[in-house]
Amino acid sequence: MFARKSSPLFRALRLARPSTLRYRSYASASGTPPPAEGFMPSVATSAFMNNTADQVFRNPELKAFASSSTKKMNLFQAVNEAMDVALATDDKAVVFGEDVGFGGVFRCTMGLQEKYGASRVFNTPLTEQGLVGFGIGMAAVGHTAIAEIQFADYVFPAFDQIVNEAAKYRYRSGNQFDCGGLTIRMPCMAVGHGGHYHSQSPEAYFAHTPGIKVVVPRSPIQAKGLLLAAIRDPNPVIVMEPKILYRAAVEQVPEGDYTLPLGKAEVLKQGKDVTVVGWGSQLYVLETAIAMLEKEIPGISVELIDLRSVLPWDVETIEKSVNKTGRLVIAHEAPVTSGFGAEIAATIQERCFLRLEAPVQRVAGWDIPFPLIFEKFYVPSAIRCVKGIKKALNY
Amino acid sequence: MFAAAIRSASPLARLARPAAGLVRTPTLAAASSLQRMLQRQVSGTSAAQAVSAVTPPTPEGRVLFPGATGSHYTEKMSFNRDPKAMSTYRVLDLEGNVIDPAQEPDLPKEVLLKMYKSMLTLNAMDLILYEAQRQGRISFYMTSYGEEATHMGSAAALKNDDVVYGQYREAGVLMYRGFTIEQFMNQCYSNAMDFGKGRQMPVHYGSRELNFQTISSPLGTQLPQAAGSAYALKLSGKDACVICYFGEGAASEGDFHAALNIASTTESPCLFFCRNNGYAISTPVKDQYRGDGIASRGQGYGMDTIRVDGNDALAVYNAVKEARRRAISESRPVLIEALTYRVGHHSTSDDSSAYRPKTEVSDWIKQDSPIARFRKYLEKKGHWTADEEAAFKKSVRSQILKEFAAAEKIPKPSLDHMFTDVLAGEQPWNLKEQEAEMRALVKEFPQHYDTKDYQK
What we know:
The complex is a heterodimer of chains A (395) and B (456). Chain A has 395 residues and is α/β, with parallel strands linked by helices. Chain A has helices at residues 8-16, 53-58, 75-89, 112-116, 128-140, 159-165, 169-172, 203-207, 220-232, 245-248, 282-296, 315-325, 340-352, 375-378, 382-394; strands spanning 70-74, 93-97, 121-123, 144-148, 182-188, 213-215, 237-242, 250-254, 266-269, 274-278, 302-306, 309-311, 328-335, 361-365. Chain A has a 7-stranded mixed β-sheet with strand order 3-2-4-5-7-6-12, with helices on both faces. Chain A has a 5-stranded mixed β-sheet with strand order 9-11-10-13-14, with helices on both faces. In chain A, strand 10, helix 11 (282-296) and strand 11 form a beta-alpha-beta unit. Chain A is globular, with a radius of gyration of 22 Å. Chain A starts with 7 loop residues before the first helix and ends with a helix. Chain B has 456 residues and is an alpha/beta fold. Chain B has 3 domains: 2-53, no CATH class; 101-409, Rossmann fold, CATH 3.40.50; 414-456, no CATH class. Chain B is built from 17 helices and 7 strands. Chain B has helices at 2-9, 11-15, 31-43, 45-54, 109-134, 148-156, 171-177, 181-188, 222-235, 254-265, 285-288, 295-300, 313-329, 358-367, 370-380, 386-409, 429-444; strands at 163-165, 242-247, 270-276, 279-280, 283-284, 304-309, 334-339. Chain B is globular. The interface between A and B is large, with 62 and 75 residues. Chain B: Its EC number is 1.2.4.4. Chain B: Its cofactor is thiamine diphosphate.
């Protein structure tokens, strides 16, 4: 049915290819969609990836787990491990969502159904509002519900269940009831060829909702620790996993059970001239941008912060940093208008007004739907981040 | 809570329920205006309707409640489950023989050949574009293998004025309506000739000229929209209906249920066409629904419903033709469940061998292919020969390859199209500023923002 490499069809297609395009590589071809793994080549070489156990346990948040061994894994494997630990340590935990049974379209639930049985790891019918409401109901009677939305772009049928139900469950009942056992995972952010509906970053919609937490991990270690923390947190938590990192991000990850704190940002790189804040895969773009800037302006010192939790967000860490540097740049993929950068900018100008040397800069997606063929012109690229940081420095 | 209290206060209040959306959960402050509104409605036209609606129908034994006026009282307690499965309508057997001659549609040879040639063309296009994605030349693709008869059988029964809402696996319907190979290729290549201006992933076709609304990836969202379009067609007195395609997976979305219900209550001429192909990505129907398939839902919403052999192009044709007649002349929605089998992977992002044995697919192809079935029918009628088959396949393949190569050479859409169409009318300040900033960046950093593949 499908053409093999030796088939006449394969050859015919080769012949039909214009000669100028024959040797074009994905990375350099502007119009050609790159394969997922090649879209963000800087992730593989990032200094933020921990390649040895020593490196891993130098992190003060992980010191307590230093007796664990580590294992090399990518982000989807780390997510899988977190759910494995949750299912093993909590017999009321269940994992469900569309296509979850066979391992999920991003392989995050692979092997879990075989290990824990189809009553604890299962496919749901194709209904986001249904499966989120189902999760709320399980959590409301004391279970631990770990729900998967196949893409963050498809969470919106469940918006009512999340915003009007999950987020208000505790408050409206006078704390008689809650659905804190609910965690909703969803892949988010750009991937190089996702177009309108496989690229979005809807964190700001949920950040406008008192009563839930929102987390965006940047790496396998972070994904495992933050997801486990989210699952065990007594509140409903949305975990947005940058899908480009599922395979591209690989590092040594502590085995077994550990958590990382929700609501805490992390300073990835100390600096004194300007504070740069990002989350998810945008951090690797920022890492590249900072490297470009350091080459251009020798001696420049940039502080990079991973926000990690969008709600509640760690104002203290950012405020402290901005009071040191006097400058703030925020970068995110979601459209700039009412993006979460707006909230950070407003709060920081309230708290650090006299200390600010320049207006807070936001480098973000434009105010248009995520456009397939114009993606590289849409995203807050390293070039745009460099420009934004320079604008803050030269004001 | 408050709204519920008002509603149950009296039958009149219940019938004079405010329109959805006006007052969903009124606050106490809104109570007086709600009461005023109710009074207005009761004293207005709705009062007359209310009187007739609360008057119970007379036949003996019928329940008095307005919720199910066709129901009779019984003193036997019984729970209903597993009603008899709805039959599956077919015209052709697996060998392409007409089973009951009375059911053979009276279609001229040229229509039958158009249906068949479209199937072959769709099949050939799928083969080439699937492979093109594998070579990295387009970013994504979805084939229609195994579902060709649902496309051509339904498309042949529609008129050009009928409005089509697809899910994403209905390329054949669009092809039958006249979308050219060139137009398909341009969309999949996101080039400057794509009607969608390169903004959406491949297979998200749309054509205003052909009354085919642009595909959107989220599942099921098109269903209530289809009901609305159908109601609008009815209001404007058009001799046309809407057909809305979706899979059995999408039928689990809330939008499906909302759509059937609202189409039913508004008596909208909408054909809901379910392609039940057995899988929603990896999810088999046993995890998708219980009960008698999707067809049983239609009865629940009070709709005319038919289940049809989706691999039998003639049965699909007959069903859609009659459904269309009912929808328009009787002002009612119709649900059609076409049973078929997804032979291909869900998409190029999917490898179905991870969740179904390869032999399941190969056995299925051997057992029943909609194209082979239709070909046998045509051959038996003397409309088609093996030689014609070979010649057509060869020519259509070379035509597709030609258009494919041509589309690849067409540049990507101009950057002029990046900030347009967000809103109609004058661009607001933020978009103006952002577009200017983007253009300045492209000018300043040509090595980073390479535009050579984009139309100037």
